[in-house]
Amino acid sequence: MTKDPFRQLVDEITLIRDEVASLRRTSLDKDEAEALHGIVARAVKDMRKATSETPAALQEALKADRDQMAHNATVAATKAAQSTLEGIKAELAVESEKLSQRAREARRATLRFSGGIWTLLAATLVTGAFLGLLTAYVTETAETFFSVDRMTRYACGLPGVGGQVVEMNDGATYCAHWIITPELAKYRREQSSQN
Fold first, then answer.
1. What is the pLDDT of residue 126?
2. Beta bridge partners of 174
3. pTM for this one?
4. Cα separation of 74 and 78, whole Å?
5. Range in 77-91, 142-156, 161-175 with the lowest mean pLDDT
């Protein structure tokens, strides 16, 4: 249901009338406004006078206060740093002592376990002598095993050694190397003809 336009206009005018009445009740009249203006003007004048006289004294007080605060902060920071460093030094001393004690205990245990430095030295010498003898034995055995005489006598014709056993008329044998057999010659001719 829409309102009649006339009725809407009447409602708006009534609303404006109420607002104007409210404004009259809360606003100042001319005499009251002049009195208020005088009070504010005197207060501003007093404030200007007070501020013109106090900046130098206020600046000095602020500077002294700032210097005192800086000094107090420096002293407090120094004390805090010193107490922290003293705590760290104490902890380091305790830990250093513990570490030294453990190192002494480890040395004592090592000497008890190994029988001292002389036992360690004797064990090193015995181990060295044993390894030296073992190396000499292995070297001599390998030299004997890989000697040319032994290889040609027992391994002639094998793939790793090569050669061919040749029998003589009197029954003697020898191992011959660099013999070109008919098969080898044929193979070489074929290879050279392909290239």
1. 94
2. 166
3. 0.28
4. 6
5. 142-156
